TrEMBL record:
UniProt key word Endoplasmic reticulum: no
Residue ranges that the Swiss-Prot or TrEMBL entry lists as coiled coil: none
Domain EamA: 10-142, 155-293
Name of the protein described by the UniProt record: EamA family transporter
Topological relation to the membrane, as annotated: Multi-pass membrane protein
Organism lineage string: Bacteria, Pseudomonadati, Bacteroidota, Flavobacteriia, Flavobacteriales
InterPro entries: AA-Vitamin_Transporters (IPR050638), EamA_dom (IPR000620), EmrE-like (IPR037185)
Keyword Coiled coil attached: no
Subcellular location: Membrane
Keywords: Membrane, Transmembrane, Transmembrane helix
TM spans (from-to): 7-27, 42-66, 73-92, 98-118, 125-142, 154-175, 187-206, 221-242, 254-269, 275-292
Protein family membership: Belongs to the EamA transporter family.
Length: 305
C-alpha cells in the first residue's frame, strides 16, 4: 500500500472515530431508555461480529487465527467492549450523553499517564501543557453542582472513569499485541469475544430480554446504526489506527466526540448545555492540539542550564 493511500485511509479512519463515534452516545442513550444496558451492548457487538465474518467470507478474506491471537482478541474484547463500553452504556441511564462524552474526553490524559507508568515513556513538554489544560477542563466539568447533585450521577461518572482506564490500557496492549493482521477480522473477533461476555453479564444480572419486533422505531433505528457504523466501520477504523499511529493520538478522538455528542444530545434529547460545560469543552479541545502537535516548546538559551 502506498503512502498516499495510507494517508487517505488514516484521514477516513479518524473521521470515523471522531464523528461516527461521537453520535453513538446519542444512539446508546436512546436505546438504553428501553433496553437493559448489557443486553443492548451484547446484541450490538454479537450481530456486528456475525456480519463481519459473513462479509469476510463473501470477500474471500480468511478468518483463521492462531491460539495466541484469539487469546489477545479476548483480552482486548473484554477491556474495550465488555467493560470499557458495556459499563458506559449502563452509566448512560444516569448521565446525559453529552456530559458522559465530555468526561471521556480526558482519555488522552489517561493514555499518556498509563504509557508513562507502564512503558516509562517520556511526556513531551507540549503534552504536559495538554494534560494541564485537560485537568482544568475536567474540573470545570465535574464542579457543576446542578448537574452532579444526583447520587446516581456521581456513581455513573465514577464508573465511566474506570472504563477510561480499561480503554486506555487496552489501547496500549493492542498496539503491541499479536493480533489478526486483517483489521476487519481483528474487529470481528474482538466483538465476538466482548459481545459473548456481555451476553453472560446480561444473564448474570437478570436483565429481561424482549423481541426486537417489540422495540420502538427509534430504538430499532439506533441499534441498526450502532451495529453497522458505530461497530463495524468505526471500530475497524480504530483498530487500524492503533497499528499505524501512536495510542495517544488515537485517543484524541475523545476530544472531538463530546462536541458531536453535546450538539446531538441538545438537539434531539433537549439535554442541558451549561455555559460552564461549553468553557470546559473549549479548554479540553485546546488540550488536544498540544497533545497531538509535533511542535516543541522553545527554550531560550538564557534559560538553558
Amino acid at each position: 500500500m502506498t503512502k498516499p493511500n495510507n494517508k487517505v485511509l488514516i484521514v477516513l479512519a479518524f473521521f470515523s472515530i471522531y464523528v461516527i463515534w461521537g453520535s453513538t452516545y446519542l444512539l446508546n442513550k436512546i436505546a438504553v431508555t428501553e433496553l437493559p444496558p448489557f443486553k443492548l451492548a451484547a446484541i450490538r457487538f454479537l450481530v456486528a461480529s456475525i456480519l463481519i465474518f459473513i462479509i469476510a467470507k463473501i470477500l474471500g478474506i480468511g478468518i483463521a487465527i492462531t491460539r495466541k491471537q484469539f487469546k489477545n482478541t479476548v483480552i482486548a474484547g473484554f477491556l474495550f467492549l465488555t467493560f470499557g463500553n458495556g459499563v458506559v452504556v449502563w452509566a448512560l441511564k444516569y448521565v446525559d450523553s453529552g456530559f458522559a462524552a465530555l468526561e471521556i474526553s480526558a482519555q488522552p490524559l489517561v493514555v499518556l499517564l498509563l504509557m508513562r507508568f507502564f512503558e516509562r515513556k517520556k511526556i513531551q513538554p507540549m503534552s504536559i501543557v495538554g494534560i494541564v489544560l485537560g485537568m482544568i477542563g475536567m474540573y470545570l466539568l465535574v464542579s457543576q453542582t446542578e448537574i452532579i447533585s444526583n447520587e446516581n450521577t456521581i456513581i455513573g461518572l465514577l464508573m465511566i472513569f474506570a472504563c477510561m482506564i480499561s480503554w486506555g490500557y487496552s489501547s496500549i496492549f493492542v498496539a503491541k499485541a499479536d493480533l489478526p493482521s486483517n483489521f476487519f477480522v481483528n474487529t470481528g473477533y474482538q466483538m465476538l469475544a466482548g459481545g459473548t461476555m456481555l451476553l453472560i453479564a446480561s444473564f448474570l444480572f437478570g436483565e429481561q430480554w424482549t423481541n426486537p419486533i417489540e422495540w420502538s422505531g427509534k430504538v430499532q433505528f439506533s441499534m441498526l446504526i450502532l451495529i453497522t457504523f458505530g461497530s463495524i466501520v468505526a471500530f475497524t477504523s480504530f483498530n487500524y489506527l492503533l497499528k499505524n499511529v501512536s495510542p495517544e493520538k488515537v485517543a484524541t478522538s475523545t476530544y472531538v466526540n463530546p462536541i458531536i455528542a453535546l450538539l446531538l444530545g441538545w438537539y434531539f434529547l433537549e439535554e442541558q448545555i451549561t455555559k460552564q460545560s461549553i468553557i470546559a469543552a473549549i479548554v479540553l479541545l485546546t488540550g488536544v492540539y498540544f497533545i497531538n502537535t509535533t511542535k516543541k516548546l522553545t527554550r531560550y538559551s538564557r534559560f538553558r542550564k
